[in-house]
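call fold(seq) -> tokens
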Amino acid sequence: MTALGTQATEVFAPARVAATAAGLCAWIESGACQTASGAFAAWLDATTGRPAFDYPEITGYALSFLAGRPSLSERAWAVGRRAAGWLVHRVHRGNLAARDGRDNEAVYLFDLAMVASGLLSFGRRAEHAELVQTGHELVALVDRELSSAVSISPLTRDRRPDRRAWSTHGLAHLAKLAQCFLLSEDFGDSKQLSRLIETVMGLQKRDGRMTTDPTDPVTMLHPHLYAAEGLWIWGLARDDEEALERAHAALDWAWTQQLEGGGFPRAAVNIHRTDAVEQTDVTAQAVRLALLLGRRTPAVEHAIARLVELSHSSGQTLSLPYQPASPNTHLNTWTTLFAAQALTMATPGAPAISWPELV
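ret:
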């Protein structure tokens, strides 16, 4: 483990970083990970090319990504419109499940929020009123769910999954709901959002670590960084210095978990031991937030190099595996989205993304 800024670094030439960023963006914009339905799949099997399940949350992320691109080709516009159409059709049919046919078709507030952010951002970019209206409707639903509960839950009240995980019982990651609330003019000042941000702040330990599951001493770094991202969004949009300080603290703690190879593990078991299973989405999140908070250090360069090193070539495009050591190479959609933003910002002269663009 290493503190932010102290690790020896391997650095790739800026041109290689830029080319990798372009290749990752091209994979998303080409629709390589989009299924016949219009949805974005969770991943592609690198051996067979077969897509995994249609994933509403990640389809929302893809729309936010496309909405934030400086320009879009006709193909990329078509990819976005198909993805948005699939999401709107699901919502209008009353299908809000995170995943069809699994988890008792439970509905997660986080997933609804990411879909809402995507529809609001892409709908405005495309000047498509129905997409924007559907995004507003989802934010209203999330607000109602938060206001009707005695205590905050990551799930809606009607359906619950049988399994237990940070996504079913944790609250820290819900800070990122701030994005869709702030994107929706009607809910930017929601009392429920303020209550949620205060709740997440209360989950942070003195060293910056977030409690990602109230009954589990393990901190999962993926939701930990979601919490930091949400606090950054809220702090920037609301000029909240405490939220920004807490985002910095969460980032600093996360970087103490960096692996020797430059990547990041999925979890920190306790202050003395890290779960060494490398997870590339966490690496991309850590790099992206470090760059957004102005923390480009040797450790960050080492993580940038790891993302470049792991990028998988698929013709003229690039994507990233989820867990590099896994015997099954899954070219992961959300990991590629996160890394595309991170490495684009790592390119010399590139501007930082704004909070509405964060996926």
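The chain has a mean pLDDT of 93.
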